[in-house]
What does this fold into?
Amino acid sequence: MLQILDSTLREGEQTPGVYFSPDKKMIIAQFLDQIGVDIIEVGNPAVDREIALAITRISQAGLKAKIGAHSLCKIDHVQKALDCGIDFLGIFFSVSKKRLQQDYNIDLDVAIEKIIEVVTFAKEQKHDLLIRYTAEDTVRSPIENVIAAATAAVKAGVNIISIADTTGYSTPFHPQRSMYFYVKTLKEELGNRGLYPQIEVHCHNDKGLALANALDAYRAGADIIDVATMGLGERAGIVDLAELLINLIDMGEKEKKWQLNYLEELYKFVSQHSHIPIPPHQAITGKNAFTHYAGVHVKAVAKNEELYQSLNPQLLGKQSSFALGMQSGYTAVQMALKQIGQGELAENKDLVDKILQEIKVIAKRGTPINIEEELPKIIEQFSVATHPFGNDICNLSV
It folds into this structure.
């Protein structure tokens, strides 16, 4: 069964300028747990004492999700992670020729010995610890190096092998650069050796393909997919949590696995405390994601939302809406009048026409029209007044 690892608190905090205090991290972790995330990766305790404090507190919070820490392939760093009381430990070490030669000045055999040493140490300290080994920059490393390191890591006690597209290099459908190829190849090669770890994927979004690559991995049988709220992370970030869940449901995963109604609160909280606004046009979570604007669209969805909507917003505890502006038509004005409690005016064709023309003029300022605040003011311009000395109709249009 597919599992979701959320790294908002680790990868997400690698977004330049983003910082979550331990208290904020606890709230985010609680949201993620309510949604139904399987693993929450809180951070690397060797980076800062405050991160270690957050990991410890969340580990002791009694959440259903497994609580994990990230660590360099060093015994002292692993010990700091273990001291936090974690269920899950992620160890990473590159096996690409360039990194081994230029960064570490070692060969593959030495790297593998180091991986075995650190994994063995971690397993000896906590036998039921779930351990992941990540060959950093997996998809740009020689596949034979990845297989060799993964084989040694699993034999040493690793439960999960992570395919990390550290630079967003992977692309769907490419014969040797796709996540499908890497997941299938690793599963087959390790299976041939009698080894059956879970396969995890960590997809970066440098070319806008993180979600596509994650779904490609899912199609190949990946067991765990990494995500972050708002897709936060290093450079262009990683797979967006909400986008992945919705697409997985569309591909057959059971909707009841996740409580999607908590997504909106989570995203608002993370956006507020990361000081990064959610783009209005962002899929699933943007304020325009279920907002209809063009006249033809609004007229159709007024009869049946499915005519211009493939996703039911109620899955996320939301409702469809519409906007007023240059693209609006007669139906949109009628709906807007009803929305503000002026439904009786919606039957006045002359008034609706005048309001519509005024809306098109206002729209030229190039900013959204606030229905609740601005429509009443527009109505006032075309209100029907009684002259104090008679019943003459005064058109107050200006």
The two ends are 64 Å apart (CA to CA).
